[in-house]
Amino acid sequence: MGNWVVTHWFSVLFLAAWLGLNVFLFVHAFLLFEKADKYYYTRQILGFCRRTLRKQLDHNLTFHKLVAYMICFHTAIHIIAHLFNFERYSRSRQATDGCLASILSNLSHQEKEGGSWLNPIQSPNMTVEYVTFTSIAGLTGVIITIALVLMVTSAMEFIRRSYFEVFWYTHHIFIIYFIGLGIHGIGGMVRGQTEESIDESHPHECAEFFEKWGDPDSHCKRPQFEGLPAESWKWILTPSILYIFERILRFYRSRQKVVITKVVMYPSKVLELQMNKRGFSMEVGQYIFVNCPSISYLEWHPFTLTSAPEEDFFSIHIRAAGDWTENLIRAFEQQHSPVPRIEVDGPFGTVSEDVFQYEVAMLVGAGIGVTPFASILKSIWYKFRNADHSLKTQKIYFYWICREMGAFAWFNDLLASLEQEMEELGKVGFLNYRLFLTGWDSNVNFDKATDILTGLKQKTSFGRPMWDNEFSTIATNHPKSVVGVFLCGPQTLAKSLRKCCQRYSSLNPRKVQFYFNKESF
């Protein structure tokens, strides 16, 4: 086997380039399918499927990254194989020993007008760089490779978090990328023997007699070659059509008028917008994309809905965390100027939609990450007030971790209402909430019946939760329940909670099971 590879290394490299291309195109088809934001609709279609199947949808961003890594890997294989191929092409063109490779290369001189050339390097003086930048395959290959490098590097977490505009605009190079990919194979750089030529001069029979090709006494005629048809457009056509259709739909929805009914500014630079939009319908925990044309026509940012489906408006809470959000808050703070126009696209589904499918729910929010749980807690308040007996959830554990005291302000009214509602309905034990302050203020006075920070009966804890103790307590209190753990927070916290879910889930499927769910945008 090793000797065969050494002898036929050119064929092996060509096969590697071909396989790399086909896997490359196959993965691209998945990328375009995934890129279209059908997430909300897919969750609705799979709403009656098993929990394990539905949970796979919540890893959409992980899948997106995995597809991107696969594209980079097979791009490298494809490029490296072609670099070796071009080196072989160059040496074959310059060869003067009359070998098979030299004779095949000379077909470009003898029969180029008939389209039978095989070696893209047409003369010994022609360089690989010249062929690369003057052929369709070479030029588009360079363009889409540069586009891929820009998209991948700008998507690094540091750039995405600190320079979102760079990530946002650079990622839209994918339009140029897929156009280049679609026409990459049009030039016919990859060539094969024609069917008629194979019948007349089969390579297995005539390759050894290449010196007698075309002789009247030889049964082997000079082989004829043609460019293989382009295949890339077939892989990306259907997902591209779906993506374009989805973008048209989103554009239509985003152009519908949004009426801002209320603007509230909270401490710690948190802005609440209450809005109305014709035909808008939501579920708990969903999110929308928001655009403010006066700040940027192209930037759309995701925000979790903090209102409940039972309310006659939808709302979001926006914290100053970058240039765009700071400019938006500043625009709404100006009292003598008109209210900025807002465009909304959505809503889109998230893992939090499934919260009421669990007997016990464990909600963990870090900082502004509490927003999806605001919608859930509001909905619970309405369900209890309206005596909704369809509620499957029997117990909710809510944890909120903040760095500053001011961050609690906008959520206090909701928690206070829930406290009062639970007492009146005799369901004090339904909601168990814990507030954790990671910052410390030595001037805080603790000698009061209610919490000095929030005014709630539940006192605020300082530091971070001891998750092993929390999970152990919940597992003991609910030995036969299915517990849904929902997090909206940083990745480090997600790792800790995921490990706890695995550690405290019983091996017996009939006993307590913890299912981890993380919000991803």
Please characterize this protein's 3D structure.
- The chain has 521 residues and is α/β, with parallel strands linked by helices.
- It is 47% helix and 16% strand.
- The chain has helices spanning 2-7, 9-35, 39-45, 51-56, 60-94, 100-105, 107-111, 128-134, 136-154, 157-162, 164-171, 174-183, 195-200, 203-206, 232-254, 323-333, 371-385, 409-425, 467-477, 491-504, and strands at residues 191-193, 225-227, 258-266, 270-277, 287-291, 301-304, 314-319, 343-348, 360-366, 395-402, 431-437, 461-462, 482-488, 513-518.
- Strand 10, helix 18 and strand 11 form a beta-alpha-beta unit.
- It is elongated.
- This is NADPH oxidase 2.
Topology:
Blueprint: H1 2-7, H2 9-35, H3 39-45, H4 51-56, H5 60-94, H6 100-105, H7 107-111, H8 128-134, H9 136-154, H10 157-162, H11 164-171, H12 174-183, E1 191-193, H13 195-200, H14 203-206, E2 225-227, H15 232-254, E3 258-266, E4 270-277, E5 287-291, E6 301-304, E7 314-319, H16 323-333, E8 343-348, E9 360-366, H17 371-385, E10 395-402, H18 409-425, E11 431-437, E12 461-462, H19 467-477, E13 482-488, H20 491-504, E14 513-518
Parallel strand pairs: 9-10, 9-13, 10-11, 11-12, 13-14
Antiparallel strand pairs: 1-2, 3-4, 4-7, 5-6, 5-8
Helix pairs in contact: 2-5, 2-15, 8-9, 9-11, 9-12, 12-15, 17-18, 19-20
GO molecular function, one term: metal ion binding
Transmembrane segments: 12-33, 66-84, 130-154, 166-187
GO biological process, one term: monoatomic ion transmembrane transport
